[in-house]
Amino acid sequence: MAEEEQKHHHHFFHRHRDEESPSEVDPKKEEKHHKHKEHLGELGALAAGAYALHEKHQAKKDPENAHKHKVAEEIAATVAVGSAGFAFHEHHEKKEAKKHACE
Fold first, then answer.
1. Which residue has the higher pLDDT, 15 or 28?
2. How many helices (DSSP H) and strands (DSSP E) are in the chain?
């Protein structure tokens, strides 16, 4: 029983040794991957921006808890800016992948 436990290891990452190395990635697939992540960043920025506007409205509507709503608004605005930055980064990664695909 002890020998079986030693042979079987649980890992968080299930990377296979016979997988492609990063240098062998299909350029079109990489471009599509960055495009997908760019869209996710845009969606995150849109959602966080909408939530920030919602919290701004709630701060005006509920003066008793205005401070809480203002803090939530600032956090949501920060998340929106970060997500937009991520989308911008992925846009440039996509352009670079597209450039390498044409070569």
1. 28
2. 3, 0
